[in-house]
Design goal:
The protein is mainly α. It has helices spanning about 1-10, 15-35, 55-90, 95-120, 125-155, 165-205, 215-235, 240-245, 265-285. It is a multi-pass membrane protein.
């Protein structure tokens, strides 16, 4: 992922979060529009997964979500490398370095969950789909808060005299944005989980359907799911200021040339010593 992203974008890596959000928005609206146009789902806020159940939108949904998952993983990896370089430069302790590694792991797990959501349709493969949704949403929220903490630390250790007031204001703005975004995403996750569980429980008790008495709780669960997805994606935009400071991105490949790095065996070492001892005698003759 790092190799592909660095080769394609280079010093314009700051565009990656924008491309990621734009790709997801176009993909979701496309599958939603096709599903509604072909009467495969209803137009008033269905669950996201139900916009990619039937053909042909199923293939578009799977492909677009898979690409989004890869792009999110690339964002998480670039964020990790950016923070890693600063922590190395400032000689941060092992605790903060491990925190950065944990952020990378959580970001990759969340991206993997999104991949499961796209590859396993909710109508025929619910267990892996719901497991992927759990990883995608719940783990993502933990990732957001962890990155917010890392940004708070960066504000104190990454300050440079030549930055001036502009960059300091940008760092403060990014940190506040991340706090508000993480808080909003957490609230949306709670509302989505509670409303969906309530709707399913009341529907099993024959208390109504999504078209009558349960319409309110159903719309609350669907709208909060859409808002939650875009709230998490908007958080990625906070990586732009950091990515814009990337001056050079390189990938170094080292090949094994088959050279022996260790000392020779005892027998060879003794033979070499004998040759070195006899060599001066040959020169004197």
């Amino acid at each position: 992922m790092f190799l592909a992203a660095s080769w394609c974008m280079g010093r314009f890596m700051w565009l990656l979060p924008i491309f990621t959000l734009g790709w997801l928005f176009v993909s979701m609206t496309t599958t939603y529009g096709i599903a509604v146009a072909l009467n495969h789902t209803f137009p008033n806020f269905p669950y996201i997964s139900y916009t990619g159940v039937e053909v042909p939108e199923r293939g578009i949904f799977t492909f677009s979500i898979a690409v989004t998952a890869i792009m999110l993983a690339a964002n998480a990896e670039m964020r990790f490398l950016f923070v890693k370089e600063i922590f190395h430069e400032k000689k941060m302790n092992k605790k903060w370095k491990n925190t950065n590694v944990a952020g990378l792991v959580l970001g990759l797990i969340s991206s993997f969950g999104l991949l499961l959501v796209g590859c396993f349709q909710v109508d025929v493969m619910k267990p892996p789909h719901y497991f992927g949704a759990f990883l995608c949403f719940v783990i993502a929220i933990v990732y957001l808060w962890l990155q917010t903490v890392i940004t708070w630390k960066l504000r104190h250790v990454a300050q440079k005299p030549q930055d001036g007031k502009v960059w300091r204001a940008i760092r403060l703005f990014v940190w506040i944005w991340q706090i508000l975004n993480s808080a909003a995403s957490t609230i949306l996750l709670i509302l989505f989980s509670v409303s969906k569980a309530t709707y399913k429980m009341q529907r099993k008790l024959n208390m109504g359907t999504k078209w009558d008495t349960l319409r309110g709780v159903f719309l609350l669960s669907t709208t909060t799911e859409w808002l939650l997805a875009f709230s998490i994606m908007f958080f990625v935009l906070t990586f732009i200021p950091g990515f814009k400071r990337l001056k050079d991105i390189k990938v170094k490949v080292t090949l094994d040339k088959g050279e022996k790095s260790g000392p020779p065996p005892n027998g060879e070492q003794q033979e070499m010593n004998d040759r070195e001892r006899l060599q001066p005698e040959k020169q004197e003759v």
